[in-house]
Amino acid sequence: MTSNRPYLLRAFYEWIVDNQCTPHIVVNANFPHVQVPVQFVQDGQIVLNVSPSAANNFNMDNDALSFSARFSGQPMQVYVPVDAVLAIYARENGEGTIFSEPSIEEEYEEEAYDSADEAIPEVEETPETEAQKPPVEGKPKKGAHLRVIK
């Protein structure tokens, strides 16, 4: 399945704006292809106001978000791949969510799948076939990644 991050990011953005709050995103400024004003980066991160009044020509798709804005009076084009977004929250009350950083393994799996000529057919797993599989050593089994949002 594709990443749910862009869908969640759009949903939280719309929810924050619909509630007349100011959406801010926390960005990993060291992530590949990120274009942000480096003079405002602290500890490898930057917080950006992405409200409709602050971000001109705002565009968010499944790959990235981009907009133009002024930083200390200087215009700049901002480009942030969706995987570089670490959190989105409302400035007024802190409501929002934190995203986990994609692991190197997940990035490798996505690249391998994207570069494959043919998709490998999926086999539906049943509890019986899952129990018959031998354990894979050296690779921990991934658990569910759910986060409680208050």
Task: Detail the topology: elements first, then pairings.
Elements: H1 5-18, E1 23-28, E2 45-49, E3 56-60, E4 64-71, E5 74-81, E6 85-90, E7 96-98, H2 104-115, H3 127-132
Structural class: alpha+beta
Question: Gyration radius, to the nearest Å?
Answer: 19 Å
Overall 3D form: globular
- Unreliable segments of 5+ consecutive residues: 112-137, 139-146
Strand content: 25-35%
Largest sheet: 4 strands, antiparallel
Round the mean pLDDT to the nearest integer and report it.
80
* Count of beta strands: 7
In DSSP terms (H or I, runs of 4 or more residues), the helix count works out at 3
Secondary-structure element pattern, one letter each: HEEEEEEEHH
Helical content stands at 10-25%
End-to-end separation in angstroms reads: 27 Å
- How would you write the strand order of the largest sheet? 2-1-6-7
> Which assembly state applies to the chains in this document?
single chain
What would your notes on this structure say?
With about 150 residues, the chain is an alpha+beta fold. It is about 20% helix and about 25% strand. The protein contains three helices and seven strands, in the order H-E-E-E-E-E-E-E-H-H. A four-stranded antiparallel sheet has the order 2-1-6-7. It has a three-stranded antiparallel sheet with strand order 3-4-5, with no helix packed on it. It is globular, with a radius of gyration of 19 Å.
